[in-house]
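quick one, two chains, predict together pls
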Amino acid sequence: MANVLDLRRRIRSVKNTRQITKAMKMVSAAKLRRAQERAMQARPYAQMLTNVLESLVRRTDLFNEATGDILHPLLVEREEKNVLVLVVAGDKGFAGGFNSNIGKAAQKFIDERRAQGQNLDLEPIGKKAIGFYKKRFPAAVYEHTEELYDNELSKHIENIRHREVPIEVAAEHPTLLVKTDFEEVTKLAHSIVDRYEHCEIDSVYIVFNEFKSVISQRVVVEKLLPIRKLGSHEVTALEEMTEEQKEAAGKAAQSAGVSINEPEETEIDQEAKKFGTAEVDYIFDQAPERLFRHLMPRYVTTQIFHALLESTAAEHAARMTATDAATKNAGDLIDKLSLTMNRVRQAAITKEIIEIVSGAAAL
Amino acid sequence: MADTTNNSGLLQVRLVTPDRVLLDATATAVELPSMSGYLEALYGAAPLLAELGAGEVRLHGGTAGEQIFFVAWGFVEVLPERVTILAETALHPEEIDPAEAETELKHSQELWNEAGDDQVKYDEANAVARVAEEKLASAQGKSH
């Protein structure tokens, strides 16, 4: 049996660990609160943009009357041959099953699509997802050509994609989650829309952890393109939280002072819902078709932006729950070790007394 | 809470960006950089939906006081007593970095050269150039 000194050392070390996990939990809770707030503050814009789009849809024909063509390329549905999947995971570990749950959901989706003979492009967002996919699948190869013409005044640039294997990593975005800057998301959305319009990809999905509140989260596979119905999220697969997970998350949130309820709608949210929907005949400063054309890519941007904000909140919530569990486990371990230490100490004392007593008796 | 039936002659003005609600105040008049030119909304204006280009939103009077925001692309809904501006980018003129705007302008010229006969790329390059030019003008206080 270990001696008292060893046990005391061990207890001290576990206590230190507990201190660290406790601090990590509080940090995660603070970050979660901030992330939640950010997601809240981003809601009015998304809502308003959707409203304008919806009101435009009511006023314009989505089909060209003469030719029957669909007005906007992002609404065109094609046979899904090349599928783009955005996988949003975290930047760091120590978040319980957060990263692996997303990885599992994504893998399931990839397997399904491969079984149907579709080609997949992966775009991991967040360092964990990048690390995971980079090891498994090769990066996409682009051939870059530049051609000068008009007396070498103009340049024609072309990037031709050469697909070698069915699953490739089309691009990676390691910095996107650091600040979740809207401008950066715009660039990503822009490149996706561009590829979709040029028929390089036929549909776009995003795998991420949806976050309503600490106890209401799920990993979803959402269809981004083609857009079938505005304002609604087309979820193709989802993974709900189990009751156990909910309970653990709820407890962690309570002890860290984070609300487990969904944030309430504020006045500005309600105002946002009314945006562009007043019962009046608006004067359109520009042709609705033109507005529509400019709005559609932005709609995709806000969808991705929102997914990233929710995922960030979910990551912090997962880390908070995980570190809370670690703190609890450390506490249990300390209790157990203290008990053993006391027993060992008592045994030593008893042994000494017996020795003294039996020594005295022998005299 | 904005009283939607107020008769104060003041417009309830909101400026919403992807990140947050930047401004919620009242004003007597708002100048807006619509795609087809500047327009000014006053109390009692006819309902209007317009796309905003790059330029300055200027507020006059009310609790907002004299305020200027540089916006690059957005939407505005004008109702008789309310103006809601949806802006993709919104900055105070003093927040603009002229050096960065210069770089953007140069970048747009490159895009312009690379566009070739692609109309879409051409339009894009023009849009980038316009934003950069307006940004510079706004930073130097020379906008319209």
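The domain at 11-93 of chain B is CATH 2.60.15.10 (ATP Synthase; domain 1).
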